[in-house]
Amino acid sequence: xxxxxxxxxxxERRREAELSSGSERTAGAISLASGSAFAGHLLALIAAVTDxxxxxxxxxxxxxxxxxxxxALAAFGPQDVRVQRAVTALTAGHGLAxxxxxxxxxxxxxxxxxxxxxxxAATLGGVFVIVVGHASRxxxxxxxxxxxxxxxxxxxxxxxxxxxxxxxxxxxxxxxxAAIFLSIVALGIALVASLSVIALRLGSRWAIxxxxxxxxxxxxxxxxxxxxxxxSLGQPSPVAPHQLHPLGAVFAQSVATAGGLVIGAALVxxxxxxxxxxxxxxxxVGYAALxxxxxxxxxxxxxxxxxxxxxxxxxxRDLANAIASFPLAGVLWLxxxxxxxx
Length: 342
Prior knowledge:
mainly alpha; 80% helix; 10 helices; Four Helix Bundle (Hemerythrin (Met), subunit A); globular; disordered N terminus
């Protein structure tokens, strides 16, 4: 007996099958995101307690994990009353814990406060993993999930422009520099959140892995920015040129570039329109080339010994990173156009 052709299947049945498949992929992505956020919180807590990394780095890493957890919580669809209450409580708890950790960066705040926030975030992460294990239903993506690529594209461009401006500007007051650095940190938080939402919408484990890799690089950059903010406010400047000592600047740069490539590749493979896909591939190749240039410059910075060479290489690295933001933003924008047109 012949199987019915796909055109013979009622549209309602096809739609139900697509929604079911999409829900299963999203549920798998949420499970991976919750587990990764929990593991990250635990590692940050252990590193902070054992002084394995500078306090600022541990706080920034934990905040990044909280962002991923909040994005996963936002992707939950309608559940039964108990699960929905748990999701609401976890969302509020993660937001409060992240705020406490961020306050811990301020001068004069005792270390016990962010440490308590780290412990609370790790505990909430464990509860979230349990909730995900019991929940079985995730709704289809909502409008905020659809708008995330456009938000990420705009943030990438604005962040690159602000970074180039502050690098070339002279005569800025120290409080104004601190405010600019804080705005770059805020843009980075919005970018990590948007990329997390995109990965959850795609329902791809590779996309989640790309976001995690991107977050490693973001933690390194943001830890340095936090130190610059504190230095602008009169606090002692960091002794080392890079705050992510255990991993290293070259590794962080390479992992972040690889994460952007994985996210971009996941977006390209989901674009059905041939013209959009080819354009996205060209942009992604350009992003990869610029990422390699930045990684090579980072390696040369580590090997350089004289200050003029280090300053020139840092300028080249920052310029490559700024230019690389534009092709990646283009890929995100093309993907958003494809989603919006559906």
